[in-house]
Amino acid sequence: MTDINVSAESAQTIDLEAWLGGATVAEASVEVYQRPDLLARIEEWQRRYERAEQSDIGERSAGEEDPLAALEAEGEALVAELEASKSVWFLRALSSADEKAIDEAHPFPERPEVFAEKPPFMQARPTEAQARAFSQAYEAWGVRKKMFDAEHAAETDAYVQGATAALIARGVEKIVRALSRIEVGGEVIASSITLEQAQGLPARLGEVQVGKIITAIDTATNLEPAVPAGFGRRGSGTTQD
Question: Under 8 Å CB-to-CB from 183, ≥6 apart: which residues?
Answer without folding.
Answer: 87, 88, 90, 189
